[in-house]
Design a protein that fits this description.
This protein has 254 residues and is α/β, with parallel strands linked by helices.
């Protein structure tokens, strides 16, 4: 990946002393919908898993993904949602209860194809996405974080999310390289609110002008530029299609 003036990184060489990373779609990627559903079926009970063949699981997973029920996956069509769910969508990352209520409600918009499947499947789907096994690190994530740590660059995660992702980072060995973790639901603010980036910069102990924000959402993550941070976009792609998207970070820091 190449950078340009439009990336918000022009003139950053030598002055970046800290790097903030988005979580989902940047450092790690949520598992495919089908494996997510299979794991939730197993968690909801063997009887539930037994009533769907492979084709049925694939159809149900695709329907759930179209509904936007997989956090970190495709977004729902807001125009097709009732007003109550649209309102939840807007605040989902500011409150843990709203986050769970939204995504379980989105999943419930997909009827279970067989009455033998327990209704608890919807809760199992939500619980599955919060487990370390549901998240796959990008191939270069650990290497880039380790090299930044070696160079003395302070690093952190700033994420719009409705649950504590620290156990996921810890399970994948990434937390050892991080100096800060700022989560929207813990502060009642979400990106692109400059206040959330300001808090993350304070936790790094750095002025925004010395911090680079890296993320896959140009609106949410790119909001850091309003505070004076530099911004480097990465592509929101499956892990096997983005083997080295984080490597340009190393060219931008001292």
């Amino acid at each position: 990946m190449t950078t340009s003036d439009d990336d918000g990184t022009h003139g950053t060489a030598g002055r970046i002393r800290g790097v903030l990373f988005d979580f989902s779609g940047t450092l790690l990627r949520i598992e495919p919908a089908e494996s997510w559903l299979r794991a939730a079926l197993a968690a909801a009970g063997a009887a539930g898993a037994a009533v769907l063949d492979d084709a049925g699981i694939a159809r149900l997973a695709a329907a759930l993904e179209r509904a936007g029920a997989l956090p970190g996956g495709a977004s729902p069509s807001l125009a097709e949602l009732p007003a109550g769910l649209r309102a939840l969508w807007e605040v989902r990352d500011r409150d843990a209860r709203c986050h769970r209520a939204l995504y379980t409600a989105l999943a419930r918009r997909v009827p279970l194809p067989r009455p033998e499947l327990p209704d608890s499947l919807y809760d199992a789907l939500y619980d599955r996405h919060r487990t370390p096994d549901a998240w796959i690190p990008y191939p270069d994530a650990a290497g880039v974080l380790a090299e930044l740590h070696r160079r003395g660059i302070r690093t952190g995660v700033v994420s719009n999310i409705g649950w504590d992702l620290r156990p996921v980072l810890r399970a994948h060995g990434l937390d050892r390289y991080l100096d800060a973790c700022v989560l929207s639901y813990e502060h009642g603010r979400q990106k692109p609110d400059p206040a959330l980036f300001a808090l993350a910069c304070r936790e790094l102990g750095l002025a925004p002008a010395g911090v680079l924000m890296v993320g896959d959402d140009r609106t949410a993550d790119g909001g850091a530029t309003a505070l004076g941070c530099a911004y480097l976009p990465v592509d929101h792609l499956p892990v096997d299609r983005r083997p080295d998207g984080l490597r340009p970070v190393l060219d931008l820091v001292g």
